[in-house]
Specification:
The protein has helices spanning 18-30, 52-61, 91-100, 120-131, 151-165, 186-196, 205-214, 234-243, 246-253, 257-269, and strands at 31-35, 41-48, 66-73, 81-88, 132-136, 142-148, 180-185. By secondary structure, it is an alpha+beta fold. It has a 4-stranded antiparallel beta sheet. Strands 5-6-7 form a 3-stranded antiparallel beta sheet. α9 packs across α10. The longest helix has 15 residues, at 151-165. It is elongated.
Length: 272
């Protein structure tokens, strides 16, 4: 789908408009819908004060009264953290967002991509701006990552990124906190960042700047390129179990003996 003219008028929360697709993705990940008595309630989105410009953009894109406030408090990471919060009470806005897939109350495990037509890369950029990271690892490798509790959201990012970069990821919850940590590095990160953070897109300026830096990375000549990962099919598993011999299976399946040994162990212990 072609990107729309950013100057053209759009219906509020038309998710085919890149600006609203981004805004909705950001609010799904980092916004909060709260119910009040009767028809009362509030939509809030809180960010570090350094990112206040994105809230001003949301305010500009919303044709209903809203306000932005600031506060300074102690957190687990800082004794003096200043944040900015966008506040909106319109029932019409809350109903619209709720129907599109922003639940009331706790939502982290329940959010999912919209079930209407939407601008995909802009939606995902909003999600990553809110709950992801873009930059370089401590060892100097470019990366794009997302931390989410939502299976649907994690799986959708993997599906999208594979189409863009060819990199395949299988999501698995972290055993410690049940969260998915999805990571792309090297050329896959470069390709994904270039697709999501295109010129003129709406987004957090600091992450747009980081994404723009990723294209400068060049793979060192001595860094080996890993071959594409081959998934084990049910037929492969059946052959491996029937032969019950990693060396023989390696020849038959055109895999390494080490790979067959590990897979056979996983099948026998129920860890596959």
């Amino acid at each position: 789908m072609a990107d729309q003219d950013p100057s053209a008028p759009a219906r509020f929360m038309d998710l085919q408009d890149p600006r609203y697709a981004y805004m909705f993705g950001f609010l799904q990940a980092d916004g909060h819908l709260a119910r009040g008595s009767g028809q009362k309630g509030k939509l809030t989105a809180e960010v570090s004060v350094r990112d206040i410009d994105i809230l001003r953009e949301f305010q500009r894109l919303t044709p209903y009264y809203s306000s932005i406030s600031e506060r300074t408090r102690a957190t687990n990471f800082s004794e003096s953290h200043t944040s900015a919060t966008w506040n909106l009470c319109s029932l019409e806005v809350r109903n619209t967002l709720n129907k599109l897939g922003l639940p009331y109350g706790r939502k982290s495990m329940n959010i999912r991509p919209p079930r209407v037509d939407f601008s995909r890369r802009d939606y995902l950029r909003g999600v990553i701006d809110a709950d992801g990271s873009v930059g370089y690892t401590s060892t100097g490798l470019p990366f794009v990552s997302l931390t989410t509790a939502s299976t649907a959201l994690g799986a959708y990012l993997c599906h999208y990124a594979k189409k863009i970069t060819g990199a395949e990821r299988t999501i698995k919850r972290n055993a410690r906190d049940g969260i998915y940590n999805i990571l792309y590095t090297k050329e896959a990160a470069q390709g994904l960042a270039a697709n999501l953070y295109y010129d003129g897109c709406l987004g957090l300026q600091r992450k747009k700047d980081k994404a723009a830096e990723l294209h400068r990375w060049l793979r060192p000549a001595e860094m080996r390129v890993s071959p594409p990962r081959r998934r084990w099919s049910p037929k492969d598993d059946e052959t491996l179990l029937r032969l019950n011999d990693p060396a023989a299976a390696a020849v038959t399946l055109d895999r390494t003996e080490q790979s067959c040994t590990m897979r056979l162990w996983r099948l026998r212990t129920g860890k596959a």
